[in-house]
Amino acid sequence: MKFFERDNERIQILDGPVNVPVLINQLTNQLSTEEPFYVMDIGEIVRKHQNWIEKMPRVVPHYAVKCNDNDVVCATLAALGASFDCASKGEISKILGLGVSPDRIIFANPMKPNSHLRYADANNVKTMTFDSDTELHKIRKISPDAKLVLRIRCEAEKALCPLGKKFGCDPVEEAPRLIKIARSLDLELVGISFHVGSGCADFPIYYKAISYARDLFDYARTCGYEMNLLDVGGGFPGDKGTTIDEVAPIINSALDQFFPDKSIRVISEPGRYYVSAAFTLVTAVQSKRVCLDFQTGSIDRMMYYLNDGVYASFNCILYDHQVPKPMLLGQNNGKVYNSTVWGPTCDALDQLIENIRMPELQIDDWVLFENMGAYTIPVASPFNGFPLPKIYCYINKDTWEMLNDLCPITDGTFCNPSGNELMINYEDVACA
Ligand SMILES: Cc1ncc(COP(=O)(O)O)c(C=O)c1O
Fold first, then answer.
1. Which DSSP helix (H) or strand (E) runs through 74?
2. CA of 271 to the centre of ligand 1 (A)
3. 3-state SS string over 157-224?
4. Positive or negative torsion for Cα 350, 355, 359, 360
5. How many Å lie between the centroid of ligand 1 and the Cα of residue 87?
6. Does 182 map to a domain?
7. What's the pLDDT at 266?
8. Does the pLDDT at position 312 exceed 70?
9. Tens digits of per-residue pLDDT, 355-398?
10. Are residues 85 and 226 in the same domain?
11. Which residues are the active-site residues?
């Protein structure tokens, strides 16, 4: 059994630890400054998974594929025994294509197009969320034996991306009515889910959401349902220097208090947590404008144009409300100016940083951005004809061997048409 057997040339196996700054130094010495690239540390995803299991052993993570659907990410998590949260037919198909069994997938999009629902049903992906009666009627027609998870709304006051405006029913006013409708339609209701908001900065909200779920478990029993699934969603931090050490005890003690019965299966849908820190983006300055103060003739501002922008990796500024923090590679001695940093396209929306004090940069200077693994790659487009960054993947030999042991790979590795990523077939791997 080999992990990524035939693609050693693109997944580099290192004898020692994966030292991202050193690798970036090597790559920037070899590569053209014209195209941006990512350095991906696979070990970071492995460590995140191990840490999750240690800190929240009762909560089975279902990786939110929408966050970063890179094949190496998904295959690594499949090998580790994680499960998956898929939002569409395309995501389900991708994960099933890795050989993951359908019962390790939750179809966690409360709004499901008919054809996606049909696809899920035909492929035995039966666990799915809903938050409206319309969806219940649709599910009854297309997937009558679905295992339904009612998504309630319980939002963090502070989150990068609140989701409650769009998804989740009110736990007190609407949820009981939907439970009754599910009953009247003779559907199987198995649990409650929530998402407190992505990039949550208000961890006690999980306690409140779990307590709402408890009330609804009790209410559902009065309607004849013995629910057995609690899904605590996503919202967990993933950047370098962040941990789940604060949120884990809140969730663990809420579970002990409200769901002491260990036969209740508890799952989660972390996205950002797994991938954010694993990806570092390396860009370079392609062009520059020195803007003068016409009155004094002195330099008012520098404008830099990088080779990646908001239509590609930095869509995370618009979509995920991220604030990119540039790091300069060894060029920190220049005079400092107020600076604006732009992407490469012809659109003025393509602004990465409006105003920052930075040492003067020159054409071909490298600019790095850490924590670029979440909500970047899957949304990126080659708008205006600018190529998307290549991904250079690294893994330490011991981690590689560990994955080889864990991962019953069934068939070889091959490139998908983009030539950038890998496809791997797996046999089923037991849940964590
Ligand atoms: C239903 C659902 N689950 C999980 C996630 C992942 O959230 P996070 O990346 O905050 O963990 C999202 C993000 O939008 C989501 O919509």
1. helix 71-80
2. 6
3. CCEEECCCCCCCECCCCCHHHHHHHHHHCCCEEEEEEECCCEEECCCHHHHHHHHHHHHHHHHHHHCC
4. positive
5. 10
6. yes
7. 98
8. yes
9. 999 999 999 999 999 999 999 999 999 999 999 999 999 999 99
10. yes
11. 346
Q: How far apart are CA 24 and CA 423, in angstroms?
A: 25
Any idea what the CATH number is for the domain that residue 85 is in?
3.20.20.10
Residues 230 and 333 in one domain: no
**Residue 85 lies inside a defined structural domain of this protein:** yes
Residue 397 located in a structural domain: no
Average pLDDT score over residue span 329-334: 80
**Residue 411: its pLDDT value, please?**
38
Task: Answer yes or no: is 9 within a domain.
Answer: yes
- Domain span at residue 11 reads 5-40+277-392
Q: Which residues have any ligand 1 atom within 6 Å of their CB?
A: 64, 67, 85, 108, 163, 195, 198, 233-236, 269-273
| Ligand 1 atom 1 nearest Cα | 108
- Ligand 1 binding pocket mutation candidate from 85, 127, 167 (most atoms within 8 A of CB): 85
Q: How far is the CA of 270 from the centre of ligand 1 (A)?
A: 6
Both tokens of residue 139? 């599910």
Q: What per-residue confidence (pLDDT) applies to 109?
A: 97
Q: Are 284 and 333 in a shared domain?
A: yes
Number of separate domains in the chain:
2
Report whether pLDDT(183) > 90: yes
CATH number at residue 32: 2.40.37.10
Q: Which of 226, 253, 274 is the last residue of a domain?
A: 274
How far apart are the CA of 98 and the centre of ligand 1, in A? 21
